[in-house]
Amino acid sequence: MGYGDVQMIDENGNRVDGRKAGDIRPIEIEMGVVPVADGSASMRWGTNYVIASVYGPMEAHPRKIQRQERAVLDVRYNMAPFSTTDRFRPGFNRRSREISKVTADALESVVLLELYPRSKIRVEIEVICAEAGTRCVGLTAASLALADAGIPMTDMVVSVASGKINGVVVCDLNKEEDNYGAADLPMGVLPNTGELVFLQMDGDLSPSEFQEAWDYNMEAALKIHELMKEAIANKYGGGQ
Amino acid sequence: MSNSGASDGRTLAASGSLVIPGDKISSDTSGQLGHGVIKVNDELIATKLGYLVEKSGEVSILPVHTAYFPRPGDLVVGYIEGMRSNIWFIDLNAPFNAILPMSLAPMKIEYGGTRDAMDVGTTILCRVQEVDEAHSSVVTMKGMGLRKVNSGFVDTIPPHLVGTISSGSNAIIQQLKDASNCRIILGANGRIWVDGEPEGIRIVRDALAYARDNQHSTELAAGIASQLANGNGE
Known about the structure:
Chain A is of the alpha+beta class. Chain A has a single domain (12-235), classed as Ribosomal Protein S5, domain 2, CATH 3.30.230.70. Helix content of chain A is 28%, strand content 29%. Chain A is built from four helices and ten strands; from the N terminus they run ββββαβαββαβββα. Chain A has helices at residues 94-108, 134-148, 175-180, 207-236; strands spanning 27-31, 39-45, 48-59, 72-79, 119-129, 158-165, 168-171, 183-190, 195-199, 202-203. In chain A, the strands form two sheets. A five-stranded mixed β-sheet of chain A has the order 1-2-3-5-4. The radius of gyration of chain A is 18 Å and the shape is globular. The termini of chain A are far apart. Chain B is α+β, with helices and mostly antiparallel strands. Chain B has three domains: 18-63, CATH 2.40.50.100; 75-149, CATH 2.40.50.140; 153-229, K Homology domain, type 1 (Ribosomal Protein S8, Chain: A, domain 1), CATH 3.30.1370.10. In chain B, the strands form four sheets. In chain B, strands 8, 9, 10, 11, 12 and 13 form a six-stranded antiparallel β-sheet that branches. Chain B has a four-stranded mixed β-sheet with strand order 1-6-7-3, with no helix packed on it. In chain B, strand 9 (87-91) and strand 10 (98-101) form a beta hairpin. In chain B, helix 4 runs antiparallel to helix 5. Classes of the chains: A alpha+beta, B alpha+beta. Chain A binds chain B through residues 38-39, 56-59, 68, 110, 112, 116-119, 147-150, 152-156, 190-193, 228-229, 232-233, 235-240, and chain B through 1-2, 14, 16-18, 20-24, 36, 38, 40, 45, 47-52, 62-67, 95-97, 133-135, 160, 216, 218.
């Protein structure tokens, strides 16, 4: 039996965790979880648990990274050694560098960096428990932490992945679907404008499947955006 | 976030409501743009997480968190963080250190004598003299009341609370002065110098701790007033 033969969705459209094709996993968001940070947020997304914290703006060091006309975003994505069933070797690796880079690129699209010349804004994303889609959880949590830190942004960033399992396009892949599925399409979306700031794809999707995954992601992003608003209102109240 | 403020049919969020980055505030762009608001495609968009404020035709956001950025004229409490032969580097609780040139120090100093005059760790009251586009700032200690701080205690509150604590007819800072009988100077950078009897300093510290813990409460002033009334800050 090969990877593609693992049955992960039944004839009624129920996935291994009982969700339907367009459902997302349960999400819990908490703001201000790291008191020493300028802004922070935690996200439980299915079994994923990610904490993002933001420090700054601060003077950019080393000086060679300073930009005279804008701030730089220093994003560090890291998985804790105990975040996976097999021990994850601590420290930076090629995957974490790549995710840090794409997360920084996505966030740079919304953060008004030109307001803070020569500065650095440090974003730390720590994966405490990993299931699947940690880059999406990390990016979304980082966007919340930036807002919590009072960093000006044109919009929030919501990230979610859809993919294909057993020939069916489904939203928000879990671990089994991510491991044994045929394709994965993580996207970062600006919920107020529908603009895209981040897109990657693993595997093969036909144009119609791609469109279906795209639609799932866009729809899920709006739902997650509402959850983000609720979490912020829980922390800071509905108004003065 | 709240969309209940459609008083004129164009306002999408009510004054005082919580908004997050990207929220559409209004389709009426005739007013002045204040802090945390930008105009995009004939709509006003929030760029900060905070409370919407509409005042005298200006729309702005009172952020829930913000970093201190020096502005000329700000009275601030700074720490000496380093020096060269003719300048000091001052930590102002801002992203960048300010500089204090020897010529703007309150005493006469020979070239090379900066450390003897004010060493690393010294607390000073100073005023921001100039700030350039890249946020480099110069502070001065020439002016009434600007000097080295040799006594008392320095506490810190988030910079966005400075306005709340210092403004209003019955300002919190005045209540603290009355209750503690201390001399209190509130820096625009969120640092507060308190000088007086130890009991008075304790009252102020407790009240400021309360302010930090309840910084997003709408009843902050009333809470501090009741804390001061019920046992002088205990």
